[in-house]
Amino acid sequence: MEVFNILYNNAKPVKKDDILVNDEIRVREVLLIGQEGFQYGIRPTREALSIAQQEGMDLVMVAPTAKPPVCKLMDYSRFRYEQQRKAREAKKNQKVVEIKEIRLTAVIDTHDFETKVRNGVKFLEKGDKLKVSIRLPYRAGQILIQQGREVLLRFLAKCEEVGEIEKDLVHEGRNIIMVINPRKK
Known about the structure:
The chain has 185 residues and is α/β, with parallel strands linked by helices. The protein contains four helices and eight strands; from the N terminus they run ββαββαβαβαββ.
């Protein structure tokens, strides 16, 4: 019988950003800015660290590419919290536009066509983009290609109240594709 020992890593968690803080700053001198915007001027890094410790703050490098690099005195954990909160707010306010696809055939029955149109209108009303495509057989003749284009144009005419065309009819290989955007309200 084998016995396994499980070792736990109790070290500090690894930072997920690339901002240098306190002892991680490895440059000779920095331009030091205080918490309220007061400029200390160009100081050696050790002196800047001692000033940060005296004020009970962290030394955070805010502009590593500047000559000399710019460091600021601030509460780093609060700074990270504010950044994460702003990122969450930005993510909450952005709208993800999904592209829904509806596939038709060049020879489609009226009932099937109406069902696809209803689904397309529903997607457009929800605010999603709609990619409508027609798949052609391998050796489709010009008549079948023209019939496919007419089906797409009929589909667009039925969806005109809730959508407008973004990308016109494109014949790519075996497919005829069109993209419809939801109408702005």
